[in-house]
Write a structure and sequence with these properties.
homodimer; alpha+beta; Arc Repressor Mutant, subunit A; Alpha-Beta Plaits; four-stranded antiparallel beta sheet; 40% helix; DNA-binding; Dimeric_a/b-barrel (chains A, B)
DNA sequence: GCTCCGGCTGGACATCCTGTCCAGTGAAAT
DNA sequence: ATTTCACTGGACAGGATGTCCAGCCGGAGC
C-alpha cells in the first residue's frame, strides 16, 4: 500500500509518542481529527500498521543475551522442526532461508552460560543436523522502521 | 525485573488486544483499575514495556523481501560502518556478532532484484571487506515475545 | 504474637478523548 | 462542466483517563 507524506508523518509521530491519541495527533499534524482517524483506519486496513502491541524488552525480563542460530535441517523434517522451535520460548523468531543453512532463528538467554541450555534445547531434536550460533554483542541499530517509512512516504 | 502472573496476563492481554484501555483490561483480569494502572506504570518504569509504538509491516509498505547479511569489517572501521548502515533505510536492524562475520544485519527490499541494489548500497563502503547474504523465504515464527513473558511470569 | 507496610479494592471527581454522525468546501479527475 | 473524493469544522453521547482517597488484607520484621 502506498503512503503519502501525511501518513509518514503520522506514523513517525505515533512511533515517537505512542501515548498521544487521535485528537492530539491531529493538532500536531495540523489537520482535522477526522482526517487522522481516516488515515489511521486506512493504514490499519491496508496492513501497514499491524497494531499497537506492547514492545517488551527481553533484557528487562532477565534475558539480556541475544544470539542467532543457523540450522541445517534433515530433508523432509521442516514442519517438525518448525513446530519444535515454536515450542521453545527463547526462540523469538524463525525464518527459513536460502544459502548455507536452512533456517535462521533468533534466541535469547539469561546469560552466556544459559545460552548453552537454550541451544541444547533447540538442537536437541532429531530433525536438526547441524547448528551454528553467533552471539550478538552490540546492537548499533535496534529494530526500526521509521527511515523506511519516510522513504516510502517520499516516493509518493 | 521480575514479573508475576498478573503482569504476564496483563502483557499477554495487551498484546492480543492493544486497543483495550486500562479500564477494560481491569475488567478482563478481574482486578481493580488502580491495580492495572500501577502494574503498567511499574512495567514501563522497569523497562519491560518499552512502549506501544505502531507495528509497521514492511511488506505492506512495498518491501516484501527480507534478507540477512553477514558482514566482515576492516579492523578499526566499525564506527564508520555502523554510521553508514544506520543511514540506509532498508537496514532494519544491525548487530555486532561473534563468530565468522563481524556484523549481522536485517535488510528488506522491494523485490529480489531490488535486493541487489540494497546490497550494493550496503557493501558499497570501504570499511566492509566481505558480505554474505541469505534471503528469508518463510517466517514460520514471526517476532514474538509472549511465550517468553509467560515463562518469566511462571518463574515467580 | 503484634505491628508496620505495601499492595489491592472500590469509589469518587473533573477533564478529556473517542466513535460517529453531518454539511460544506476545494481540487483533481473524467 | 460535472462528478468524485478527501478534508474541514462542528456536533453529540458515551466512556475512559488521571488522580485522589479510605479501608482492608496478608506477609515481613520485631
Amino acid at each position: 500500500m502506498a503512503i503519502d507524506g501525511l501518513d509518514g508523518r503520522l506514523i513517525t509521530l505515533l512511533d515517537a509518542e505512542p501515548r498521544i491519541g487521535v485528537l492530539e495527533a491531529s493538532r500536531r499534524l495540523g489537520v482535522a481529527r477526522g482526517t487522522v482517524q481516516a488515515r489511521l483506519d486506512r493504514l490499519r486496513a491496508g496492513g501497514v500498521i499491524r497494531g499497537f502491541g506492547p514492545q517488551v524488552d527481553p533484557a528487562a525480563l532477565g534475558y539480556p543475551v541475544t544470539a542467532f542460530a543457523t540450522l541445517e535441517i534433515r530433508q523432509g523434517q521442516g514442519a517438525d522442526v518448525r513446530a519444535h522451535l515454536a515450542g521453545v520460548p527463547e526462540v523469538l523468531e524463525l525464518h527459513t532461508t536460502t544459502g548455507e543453512g536452512d533456517m535462521l532463528c533468533r534466541l535469547v538467554a539469561r546469560s552466556n552460560a544459559d545460552l548453552q541450555r537454550v541451544i541444547d534445547r533447540v538442537v536437541g531434536f532429531e530433525g536438526i543436523v547441524r547448528a551454528s550460533t553467533t552471539i550478538a554483542l552490540e546492537n548499533p541499530v535496534p529494530l526500526r522502521i521509521i527511515p523506511l517509512v519516510e522513504q516510502a512516504a517520499q516516493e509518493s
